[in-house]
């Protein structure tokens, strides 16, 4: 798994916030811009996965030499941070309701769509996220919504973290189900069919009686993708119901 937050901190912050424009030699305009480099890198990662996104391939897709990229961005670590924050900016979060639950749900389902468009997001650890405009816009939107839910300030912060952790993780799982055949070369149905013998020869219904009973009651009558979607909906509702129960009357 790739990790965000790598590379030179000051240089990454400068690039994230576009605080300075790269200088071109002898007054000539640069062959490519930083925004075009980030967009090209994201397209490569979308199509072929994060491992395929190398500086050489990004340069080739833009029709320039690899060294041209290094006049804009120091390396892959910084480029990955720029890609991640650029993806978060695609959420386009704006408050269109006074209902804090609806605002959180808007973020949640747009994040699912985001991970579906950019399946490489699931391969990036955000324990140390890039401190860019995309991250701050996301967190500011959620904190603004949760601040109207009747929670104490410290609970607002914790709730924001809990929601982001659940939504980002569950969205990654949903995206993986969506792209499972592309990633593995095998459909979901074929994968399970190849393991049908397990249930016939290995599974012990007495030892795993809870699974057996739930199975008999139809608890598993859905595809893996449907199960992931149901888990996302239920988990999000449970979190929001729990926060609502903690809210104090205003």
Account of the protein in words:
The chain is mainly alpha-helical. It has two domains: 2-86, Arc Repressor Mutant, subunit A, CATH 1.10.10.60; 88-246, Tetracycline Repressor, domain 2 (Orthogonal Bundle), CATH 1.10.357.10. Helix content is 62%, strand content 2%. It has 13 helices and two strands; from the N terminus they run βααααααβααααααα. It has helices at residues 9-16, 34-48, 55-62, 66-69, 76-89, 100-117, 133-146, 153-178, 180-184, 188-193, 196-201, 209-216, 224-246, and strands at residues 2-3, 124-125. A two-stranded parallel sheet has the order 1-2. Helix 6 (100-117) runs parallel beside helix 8 (153-178). The protein is flat.
Outline of the structure:
With 250 residues, the protein is mostly helical. The chain is 62% helix and 2% strand.
Descriptive keywords:
transcription; 62% helix; mainly alpha; 2 strands; 250 residues; Arc Repressor Mutant, subunit A
What's the overall geometry? flat
- CATH architecture heading of the largest domain: Orthogonal Bundle
Task: Characterize the largest beta sheet: strand count, sense, and whether it forms a barrel.
Answer: 2 strands, parallel
Give the distance, in angstroms, between the N- and C-terminal Cα atoms.
44 Å
Cα-atom Rg, whole angstroms? 22 Å
The proportion of strand residues reads under 5%
């Amino acid at each position: 798994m790739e990790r965000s937050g790598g590379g030179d901190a000051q240089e990454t912050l400068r690039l994230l916030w576009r605080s300075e424009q790269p200088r071109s030699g002898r007054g000539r305009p640069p062959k490519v811009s930083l925004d075009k480099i980030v967009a090209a890198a994201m397209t490569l990662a979308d199509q072929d996965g994060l491992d395929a996104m190398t500086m050489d391939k990004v340069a080739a897709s833009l029709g320039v030499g690899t060294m041209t990229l290094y006049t804009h961005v120091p390396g892959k670590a910084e480029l990955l941070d720029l890609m991640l924050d650029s993806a978060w900016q695609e959420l386009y979060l704006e408050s269109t309701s006074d209902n804090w639950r609806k605002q959180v749900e808007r973020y949640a389902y747009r994040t699912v769509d985001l991970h579906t468009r950019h399946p490489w997001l699931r391969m990036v650890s955000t324990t140390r996220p890039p401190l860019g405009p995309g991250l701050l816009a996301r967190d500011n939107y959620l904190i603004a919504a949760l601040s109207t839910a009747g929670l104490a300030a410290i609970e607002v912060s914790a709730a924001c973290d809990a929601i982001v952790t659940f939504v980002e993780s569950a969205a990654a799982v949903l995206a993986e189900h969506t792209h499972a055949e592309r990633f593995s070369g095998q459909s979901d149905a074929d994968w399970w069919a190849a393991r049908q013998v397990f249930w016939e020869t290995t599974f012990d219904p007495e030892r795993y009686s809870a699974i057996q009973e739930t199975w008999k009651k139809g608890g598993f009558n859905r595809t893996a993708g449907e199960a992931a979607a149901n888990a996302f909906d239920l988990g999000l509702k449970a979190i929001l119901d729990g926060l609502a129960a903690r809210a104090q009357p205003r």
